[in-house]
Amino acid sequence: MYINFLKVVFIMMLDDFIANDEVKTELEQAMLSNKLPHAIIIEGAKGTGKKTIADIIAGYCVCQGEKRPCGTCPGCIKALHKSHPDIFIADGSNSVEINIEAIRNIRQDAYIMPNEARLKVYLLLDCDKMLIPSQNAFLKVLEEPPANVIFVITVTSANMLLQTVRSRSRIYTLYPVSNEQAAGYLLKKYPEKPYDEILRAASLCDGNIGKTAEILESGGEQSSKLANDIFSAIANGKEYDTLVLTSQMTTNRNFASSVLDFLLENAAECVKVSVGGSSDSEIAKRVAAAKSKNRILRLAENIDRAKEILSTNVNLSFFSTWLASVLKL
Ligand SMILES: [Zn+2]
């Protein structure tokens, strides 16, 4: 319990957010001088830490400590437990939570004084699907901003929002960090995992912390092993084995996605060897010697397509059968 609590506090402090120094410095100064903009857009790819920054801002708004957010005062503790009455969270991936009616409710609510904190904060998370009417309704709040209120929107790209909304907000852009930075950070979160495994997962995700954590959570070792088995079945032309092995991917979508990432890495290694690069992988050398570069590229394309299909609501049993049929060299 104590350890869990420490873990949560750990990500509440700006100092512990890795890289993205420009954003951190600017936010820190704004917080120290009590000049946080009343409307903030945090943009960045999935897993770059948008929600973490949004949580830090929410902590700042309700903290009762000296250096906000302190992570230990009653306000921060309530924020960490998602039970603070002055922190409102709307999940934009559920479009109902940011539809026009929801935004109108937020607008009304925003003019009511905070319950117990200095500031009230509205986190509108993952607003990629926020429709124009909702954005226009939101714009009305920004045009006459209520006192003591901070709005935070997170979105993949601020360009998905109306120019009028953007121009009234401060936009902070988050970038993925280097693989080594990501691995170093995640090693603190997953001390039981070997560094090499974390670094390998981070490399697969281009240093994207959220995605790397997903792979680690979903059991990176198992997915890497299954991917290697599938790849060797493909390389040996054993279609039935491929089918049996892909059926093991149906347990969970994150797991399946992580297996595909490792498969893609295998294919990329073969392509590298087939264009004259060196590799430690025996199977990559063997495949590159036996198959044309175009065949390997087609396999990589199919794996990529599978990733896209997996991100839709596809039935996993159908998916694994279809996958086996396209995993051929
Ligand atoms: Zn605090």
Question: Could you give a short description of this structure?
Answer:
By secondary structure, this protein is an alpha/beta fold. It has helices at about 1-10, 20-30, 50-60, 75-80, 100-110, 130-145, 165, 180-190, 195-205, 210-215, 220-235, 240-245, 255-275, 280-290, 295-310, 315-325, and strands at about 40-45, 85-90, 120-125, 150-155, 170-175. The chain has two domains: about 1-175, 3-Layer(aba) Sandwich (Rossmann fold), CATH 3.40.50; about 220-325, Zinc Finger, Delta Prime, domain 3, CATH 1.20.272.
How would you describe what is shown here?
By secondary structure, this protein is an alpha/beta fold. It has two domains: 2-173, P-loop containing nucleotide triphosphate hydrolases (Rossmann fold, 3-Layer(aba) Sandwich); 218-326, Zinc Finger, Delta Prime, domain 3 (Up-down Bundle). 56% of the residues lie in helices and 8% in strands. A five-stranded parallel sheet has the order 2-3-4-1-5, with helices on one face. Strand 2, helix 5 (100-110) and strand 3 form a beta-alpha-beta unit. The longest helix is centred in the C-terminal third of the chain and has 22 residues, at 253-274. Residues 1-10 have low confidence and may be disordered. The chain binds zinc ion. Zinc ion binds at residues 63-65, 69-70, 73, 75-76.
